[in-house]
Design goal:
heterodimer, A: 222 residues, alpha/beta, Rossmann fold, 9-stranded mixed sheet, two-stranded antiparallel sheet, globular, B: 743 residues, alpha+beta, Phosphoribosyl-aminoimidazole Synthetase, Chain A, domain 2, 7-stranded mixed sheet, 28 strands, 36% helix
Chain lengths: 222, 743
């Protein structure tokens, strides 16, 4: 079970994502933005950070990285892809997921322990959770406000493609408290909070983030 | 302007030069002419002016800083001492840790966001330059009154700058301080600490050895930003009026720095450099002269090869530019190819601009013409040294002769009002509004961060080895008695490490003062250094490096003497660290240490407008016994929680503890006014299981530390004698201050 973790220039949470993959029992495979092959991985994670310094728009330059062409092709064939934070932004810019992430409503970078509710446990990345399960994992970003047009929002809601919502006060102005979404097929997931920083209570607010990584393991073994 | 070459300088000895505008004094200019045996070229003048600035040369502080070497305690932990970019300490298991604090005070006042951002960038490159991977940052900050209009301009910008740069580098921010005082109104203090880790064998030094080796510049292109930053900004007092100094502030690009970090670490891993230096204050002037001076002494540089962002820059400007995110490496010719390949992988601009030569001259050419020919030691290490006049300022006897007079707490409602007031005062209020703008989780090794007593990071995932760092200063005490103030800050920082169970190992410092040309300020500085050196000797902690920031004053009014002391400690297993508070009911709370009527310099006195009296006297022998007690108790798993008492005394300490996990406490005090509000040093509140009381009593006897029972944990209130404060009310007082002030 090989899970690729992509490093773009400016990616920060790649080693954390790789650690989470390894702790969950899979093998993390480092992928470089300029790579011309996916090294036979079974799934791909786009970790958080500030790829290309967030210049132009978050994720707008990374989507043109050579490795992203391969990721887009593979995702189209059903390969599980998880974008966390900046990775989510890259997935939106790549049109693998709808909508966009804009600046937090209070215009500040926000790092805090955030409670979220898992609202769809049928995706490749969420089967370890119960539907309605509440977990606390770090949220840390400056541009985490999920925005989309009314029709897209209605589609996401009616098709159950919102996979996680913020609980309590809306931390960043996201529409419908959306913390994460999936594509129609359920293989591509974008998530604003950081499950890879919640794999051990020693270094994070909980170990509840591991569920995303054990989910993919289960999905692959099936 | 035409090119000023060495040949022209020789033939036109009488040309007038703008040395004063560049910050040089007439005798300094005369000395340059004496060294060179001619007038300097304009490029040489530019180099000397920035390198002989107070900021780079430590010319006013050197004679005092010597004490850190003269009085250095024997330490087997110190691998690299003062003089390099940062000191390096052995923390065991083959790991070496490097850490340092620097100031970026003046730029942050002029341009808060970029000033603070490049402060982080500069200290991170210092750590990187030692061969280490940067693993965390901290930022002790000081501002004018919290409700002053200019604080609202400066603070949000500085916080956003610290966060904007540090977050983008992927460095967890694990602590710091935020203190408000009117003396910082025109001079906010932005101190930035970075810590990095490496294996012993990976230590790199700033030296250019081996004739024929190449001088390689890599990183960002050179632009016109920050020209004269160290000489114009950092080394002069701001007057009122005058032209804006904003062009002297550098502009940072954290993305480029992140790339530079990863690129450099890959280069280090393949052992491709002989020596390395970052380009910070004084830019290329500093890097070339320090590398040459640290090595065999000779170097030739073709300045026209430096890649420019602005092609119109003159040679003088290129030498003085403080454009950020640049590094200079010494590379053996046969390793250049691989060096270039790694830079290409990371899209980092790289250019060989010169080579190491035999001899003792730094020669810089511009399109083939020699524009600099100097002995590099005279630029980098043999600058002017001043033994500036110093005199105890008149205020000392005046304030020391007065006694603090404070309202006495009598009733339960007095106690409640005092606790709530301290909980909400800007200096002690919850700082989440600030710290939530910093990423504390990145890298996945953060064990402790704000509001814990110290920041703690794991450095080995398999052995669980970790380090802890705390930075502290009590400028009120330093104002009343700078000698004691320095010792007390040292003791507090060490104690903050030990409460978690880490053993203090080494010290860094950032000494923030007013103008060295004021004998009173110079006396404060001298006393501070003497106190810190004496204290470090007594506690057996070596000073590994530091930074001096002078000229922190507006007009005649200097800031409070503010020595920020950072202590680094090591903990063998981070999983065992003692948390700063309790999350269960039924534990017994004890106070370790003695409480006296220490109100001088306290937060309670500050709130009542009193800045008089005598500071406490540091008892470092007792502090060391207290630290040993904490470490021994930690080793046997005695403590469920331990929290240092400092600003705000027991009142603030209890507030922080009960709000951390929202578990209350019931406390019984004798003389409540003194016991609650005094800031006697050397005190720690600990929580233990009641059935381990004998162990604690035994330790207190063994180390001769006064022990007194405070009460028990539990409930949803903080109860002090007959005063009941619901935690929800206490939390509102503690957490609403910053959002109310800063939005």
């Amino acid at each position: 079970m090989r899970i690729g973790v992509i490093t773009f220039p400016g990616t920060l949470d790649d080693r954390d994502a790789a650690r989470a993959v390894n702790v969950s029992g899979a093998e993390a495979v480092a992928l470089w933005h300029a790579d011309a092959d996916l090294k036979k991985v079974d799934a791909v994670i786009l970790p958080g950070g500030f790829s290309y310094g967030d210049y132009l728009r978050c994720g707008a330059i990374s989507r043109f990285a050579p490795v992203m062409k391969l990721v887009i092709d593979a995702a189209g064939k059903g390969m599980p892809v998880l974008g966390i934070c900046n990775g989510f932004q890259v997935l939106c810019e790549s049109h693998l997921l709808p909508g966009a992430l804009t600046r937090n409503s209070d215009l500040h970078f926000l790092c805090r322990d955030q409670e979220i509710e898992i609202t769809n446990n049928a995706t490749a990345w969420t089967t370890s959770f119960a539907k309605g399960e509440r977990i606390t994992i770090p949220l840390k970003n400056g541009e985490g406000s999920f925005q989309c047009d009314d029709q897209t929002l209605a589609t996401l809601e009616s098709e159950g493609r919102v996979i996680a919502r913020y609980v309590g006060v809306n931390p960043n102005g996201s529409r419908n408290l959306i913390a994460g979404i999936t594509n129609e097929r359920g293989n591509v997931v974008g998530l604003m909070p950081h499950p890879e920083h919640a794999i051990d209570p020693l270094t994070g607010p909980s170990a509840q983030g591991l569920g995303f990584f054990t989910s993919i393991l289960k999905a692959m073994v099936k | 302007m035409s090119l000023d070459t060495v040949a022209i300088a020789q033939s036109t000895p009488e040309n007038k030069q703008p040395f004063a505008e560049l910050g040089l004094k007439p005798d300094e200019y005369a000395r340059i002419k004496e060294i060179l045996g001619r007038r300097p070229t304009s490029s040489e003048l530019a180099m000397y002016s920035v390198m002989w600035s107070e900021h780079c040369s430590y010319k006013s502080s050197k004679v005092h800083l010597k004490q850190f070497g003269d009085k250095a305690p024997k330490s087997e932990a110190l691998l690299v001492g003062i003089g390099e970019n940062a000191g390096v300490v052995d923390v065991g298991q083959g790991y070496a840790v490097t850490f340092k604090i620097e100031s970026h005070n003046h730029p942050s006042f002029v341009e808060p966001y970029q000033g603070a951002a490049t402060g982080i960038g500069g200290i991170v490159r210092d750590i990187l330059t030692m061969g280490a991977r940067p693993i965390a940052v901290m930022d002790p900050l000081r501002f004018g009154p919290a409700d002053a209009p200019d604080t609202r301009r400066v603070l949000p910008g500085i916080v956003a700058g610290v966060g904007g740069y540090g977050n983008c580098l992927g460095l967890p921010n694990i602590g710091g301080e935020i203190v408000f005082d009117e003396t910082y109104a025109g001079n906010p203090l932005v101190n930035a600490l970075c810590v990095g880790v490496m294996k012993h064998s990976d230590i790199k030094l700033a030296k250019a050895a081996g004739a024929g080796n190449l001088v390689v510049l890599f990183g960002a292109k050179t632009g016109g930003d920050g020209i004269g930053g160290v000489s114009v900004l950092a080394s002069e007092t701001f007057g009122t009026g005058g032209s804006t100094k904003r062009p002297s502030v550098q502009v940072g690009d954290p993305f480029v720095e992140k790339i530079l970090i990863e690129c450099s670490l890959e280069i280090f891993a393949e052992d491709l450099v002989v020596g390395i230096q970052d380009l910070g204050g004084a830019g290329l002037s500093c890097a070339t002269s320090e590398l040459a001076s640290g090595g065999s002494g000779g170097m030739k540089v073709a300045l026209d090869k430096v890649p420019l962002r602005d092609p119109s820059l003159s040679p003088e400007e290129i030498l003085m530019s403080e454009s950020q995110e640049r590094m200079c490496a010494i590379v053996e010719p046969h390793k250049l190819q691989r060096f270039l390949e790694i830079c290409k992988k990371w899209d980092v601009t790289v250019t060989a601009i010169g080579e190491v030569t035999d001899g003792e001259h730094l020669e810089i050419t511009w399109n083939g013409e020699v524009i600099v020919n100097v002995p590099p030691r005279t630029v980098a290490h043999e600058g002017p040294v001043y033994n500036r006049p110093l005199a105890q300022p008149a205020y000392i006897d005046v304030v020391n002769g007065q006694k603090v007079t404070l309202p006495i707490l009598n009733s339960a409602s007095d106690i409640k009002a005092a606790v709530l007031k301290l909980a909400g005062t800007p200096n002690l209020a919850d700082k989440s509004w600030v710290t939530s703008q910093y990423d504390k989780y990145v890298q996945g090794n953060t064990i402790q961060s704000q509001p814990d007593d110290s920041g703690m990071v794991r450095i080995d995932e398999s052995t669980h080895l970790g380090i802890a760092i705390s930075t502290d200063a009590n400028a009120n005490w330093s104002y009343l008695n700078p000698y004691q103030g320095a010792k007390l800050a040292l003791a507090e920082a060490a104690r903050n490490i030990a409460t978690a169970g880490a053993r203090p190992l080494a010290v860094t410092n950032c000494l923030n003062f007013g103008s060295p040309e004021d004998p009173g300020v110079m006396w404060q500085f001298a006393e501070t250094v003497r106190g810190l050196a004496d204290g470090c000797l007594e506690m057996g902690l070596p000073v590994t490096g530091g930074n001096v920031s002078f000229y922190n004053q507006t007009g005649a009014a200097a800031i409070l003497p503010t020595p920020v002391i950072g202590v680094l400690g090591v903990i063998q297993d981070v999983r065992t660290r003692t948390p700063m508070s309790f999350n269960v009911a039924g534990l017994d709370l004890y106070l370790l240490g003695d409480t006296y009527e220490d109100f001088a310099g306290s937060e309670w006195a500050f709130l009542n407008g009193e800045r008089v009296g005598q500071s406490p006297t540091a008892d470092l022998a007792r502090e060391m016994r207290l630290i040993e007690l904490l470490l021994e108790g930690h080793a046997v798993g005695l403590f469920k929680a331990a929290h240092d008492l400092s600003q705000g005394g027991l009142s603030a300490g209890l507030t922080e503890m009960v709000l951390r996990y929202f578990v209350g406490a019931t406390i019984t005090l004798g003389n409540v006014g003194i016991e609650l509000l005094s800031e006697s040093p050397g005190r720690v509140v600990v929580a233990i299981d009641s059935n381990t009381a004998l162990t604690l009593t035994g330790l207190a006897e063994k180390y001769s530390i006064t022990l007194s029972k405070l009460g028990t944990t539990g409930g949803d209130s903080l109860i002090i004698n007959e005063c009941v404060i619901p935690l929800s009310e206490l939390r509102t007082a503690h957490t609403s201050t910053f959002p109310t002030l800063f939005g």
